[in-house]
Amino acid sequence: GRQAGTPTKLDILKIGEAENMFVVEEFRSKGVGKKLLHEFVKWCEMKKAMRIKVVASAQNNGAIEFYRREGFEDYNLVLERALK
Questions:
Q1: What is the DSSP string of 56-68?
Q2: pTM over 0.85
């Protein structure tokens, strides 16, 4: 059996992921997104996540720069192609 307190593979790989987080345009640049992101970070910490992942459209330069300013770094590149 597993000893109490011994991490499992799932514990080690626990990642918090925010996908499609959105702030209505009239509320942008007013700290709303930063507060929302910081609450998400606190929630991930409470859930004992080891890493945090955010997903932004490659065309959304504003969101990408926002996440970079908040300490996120480029990690994966996902490419897509439409089918006929």
A1: --TT-HHHHHHHH
A2: no
